[in-house]
Design a protein that fits this description.
mainly alpha; single chain; binds iron/sulfur cluster
Length: 184
Amino acid sequence: MMTENSHTPSPAERLKACSGVDVQLCYQCGKCTAGCAMAPEMDLPPSFLVRLLQTGSPAAYRRVLESRSIWLCVGCEQCIGRCPKEVDIPRLIDCLRSEAQKEGCVSPEASDIIKFHKSFLGSVKRNGRLGELDLVVEYKLRTLHLFQDVDVAPGMLAKGKLPLIPERIKGKREIDEIFKKSNA
Ligand code: SF4
Ligand code: SF4
């Protein structure tokens, strides 16, 4: 029940609670964007994404959630390594991805990236570790990109880079517990 003192957290407060990152620390030096290998592909380069979050405006927050950038980040941590204020952009992006899915405003251009993430996790869930061929098969079934990159498969098979039977780890039960706890 709502009381006089109840407070609905703003998007900025929710993001801070999820990530522990204070975006107000950023002073827009641009080092994160200069070092990010994915920035040229992004619609919102990392420093601009942080700037939008700093404004606290719901429209700016929505623009970030709908961006392609949050799905293109590869989590390499180059940005935080260069940031004089240690603004943890990859951590922010993890929370933004989850929020974009909850709010149903994922960029349509992220569809294949999300299918790749699900296929990766599916393989780890089945085997306790990644099975490369297992991942490729699930990804192709999810996306129906059945013939994409087929020309590289024979070379990879010949070099043993695509084992036909995925290896299973011994501690599979512990991995199952992790998936159970995270509801993945
Ligand atoms: S490097 Fe850090 S302080 Fe500089 S713009 Fe990026 S997030 Fe802001
Ligand atoms: S973690 Fe993401 S935003 Fe940071 S440098 Fe790497 S790709 Fe760019």
